[in-house]
Design goal:
It is a single chain. With about 240 residues, this protein is an all-alpha fold. The protein has eight helices and no strands. The chain is elongated and about 80 Å long.
């Protein structure tokens, strides 16, 4: 890739990053809810295959819901903390480069604006003015696609994942509490999975029907397998 093309690619990052970041947060929430739906439904139906005691089924569902939510939150916290550390590292490197080679960094910034289509003289003026105002911010946004004052927050990510999982897990659990029939839970879960499949497909600009069918089929398969295993286990224990 030529330097001009590379600069053009880097320059477009700040405009795409904001939207991509918001979509990633929303997509993570949808996936967290989807995981809560499937995993909790699999647990309650697996236990339902082994016993008719609704108290035991609900207890297993509650334990699975909390364990899954905590696991999701912990995993997201670790993942986003690593991302934040990486963002801080590249910003620190940019600070050093600005301190050690300011003229070279100015030329680089001007090149980014020039690659967008701005005339060379004007691109140089823009780079000089932005550098004079806040050099780190100018380079972070144009070169790295980062806002130094708005880095990813691991606590926000962990909280969002925790809540999304709980919301998803509540659907099959409520199905068990409201009605004794396992079919009520299965239908409720299938509808919920159709919704999350549709939303995730739209976020990714993917075919909706295919995503819905895949999501619902996967969930039904998981529930069917765990119910069968629970039935077998219940028979052996009984």
């Amino acid at each position: 890739m030529s330097e001009t093309n590379a600069a053009r690619t880097d320059h477009h990052e700040p405009h795409d990053t904001g939207l991509a970041s918001r979509l990633n947060w929303l997509r993570a929430g949808v996936l967290g809810a989807n995981d809560g739906i499937v995993s909790t439904a699999a647990i309650v139906l697996g236990v339902a295959g082994a016993t008719d005691d609704r108290g035991s089924i609900v207890l297993a569902g509650l334990v699975g819901m909390m364990a899954g939510a905590m696991s999701m939150a912990a995993g997201e916290y670790v993942s986003v903390s690593t991302q934040r550390d990486t963002e801080k590292a590249v910003l620190d490197r940019e600070r050093r480069e600005l301190a050690e080679t300011p003229e070279q960094e100015l030329e680089e910034l001007a090149g980014l604006y020039e690659a967008k289509g701005i005339e060379p003289d004007l691109a140089r003026q823009v780079a000089e003015q932005l550098t004079a105002k806040d050099a780190l911010r100018a380079h972070a946004e144009a070169e790295l696609g980062l806002d130094p004052d708005d880095l990813t927050n691991p606590w926000h990510a962990a909280g969002a994942s925790f809540l999304a999982f709980l919301v998803g897990a509540a659907i099959p659990l409520l199905g068990v509490v409201i009605a004794p029939s396992a079919w009520v839970t299965v239908v409720a879960v299938a509808i919920a999975l159709a919704v999350t499949g549709s939303v995730s497909a739209r976020l990714g600009s993917a075919p909706v029907l295919r995503a819905v069918v895949r999501n619902v089929a996967g969930g039904l398969l998981a529930m069917g397998v765990t119910y069968l295993l629970g039935t077998v286990a219940g028979g052996l224990v009984g």
